[in-house]
Predict the structure.
Amino acid sequence: MTEARLAIAGQDIAECCKKIIPGQTDELLQNKLQQLISDFPLRLAMIGDEWYKLGGVVDMNGTRIANDITEWVERSYIECGQNLQTLIEYALEQKLIATKQTGKTLYFVVQTGDRAEDFTLIEIDKTHEVSDRMLVDEANPPDDLEEFIDPIHPFCIESFGFGHSRYAYRRKTDVALFMGVIDERHPGEHSVRRFMDDWNRSSAGQVARMSEDWIIRPYSHTGRFGEQIVNVELVNTHKHHLPHLEDFAGKKGSALSNVLTRFDRQAGHPFAWFFYMLKGRLVSTHIAESVFRDISGDFAYLPKRDEAVLRDWIATPYNV
C-alpha cells in the first residue's frame, strides 16, 4: 500500500467530541470518529490508567460556583481585599466544596498503511467531575493561596458525581511524521525506530500490523539546560494473557522451537517472542541466545528474514 496521510484536522476531532451527548458510550464516540475518518479503519487500541486534576467549586447542594478552582480562588482573593483570612471565613461560612476531574485517556488508532509506522494515534480524554474535599479545613486552614487551591492534607469528603462523563480531544500524532522528528533529534538510531524497522523486515511485518499490539506514546520533558527533549515510549496493548518465557537453559532444537511457536500462536503472529523480548518482562534475552546457538549449529527453524533480524540483535543488542 502506498503511503497515505490522515487529512482530518485536530479541530474537527475536537468538535466531534463536543457534540457527543454527555454520558454516551465509548462505542458511540468511536462510531462518530469513524464517520469523520471514513477513508481508513479506526479502532480503540487502549484505555489508559485513571488520572485526576483539579476541578471547580460547588456548594453543599451541588450548585455550581465555578468551573475552575484556581481562577475562582485568585479572583475571590482579590475581591476579599487580598485578605486570606476573609476568603477562608467566606469559604467556611458557605461550606464550599472543591471538586476534581477524574479521567482516562482513550487511544484510538487509525491505520493508514501496512508498515509499522503507518498509523495515526488519536488521544481523547474521558472525564467525570466528582466532589473531592471541603474547600477549607477549619481545623487546618491554608497558609497561602497555593495551599488553598491544592492542599497537601485535604479534608476529604464522601465522593459524589456531577453530571455525566465528557470527551475532550487531546492530540493527534501521525506516527510516521513523528518518528521523522525523533530521527532528527536523537543521535544514532532510536530504539523505537529500530523496533519498527525490525518489525517491517521480519515475518511479523508480513502478516500483522504493529499497531494491533503496540502503539507509541509521545512525550517531552525539560533537559538539564532547560531545553525541550522530545521522546517516545512503546506501549503494548495486547489484551490476552501471554506466558512468561524465562531462561530455557538446556532447551534446544524442536523443544525450543515448539515453545516459541506456542507463544507466537497465543500472541497472534510469527516472531512475536522476539519483540516481546525487546520490551522485557515476558521473554528473557536468554531465549534469543539459545535460538542463536541453534541456528548457528544444526537447526534451522527460523525464516531467513527473522534469522537476519536475530543475528543483527546478537551483534548489537538493544531494548525498548
In short: The chain has two domains: 10-173, 190-211+237-320. The chain has a mean pLDDT of 91. Residues 253-267 form the longest helix (15 residues).
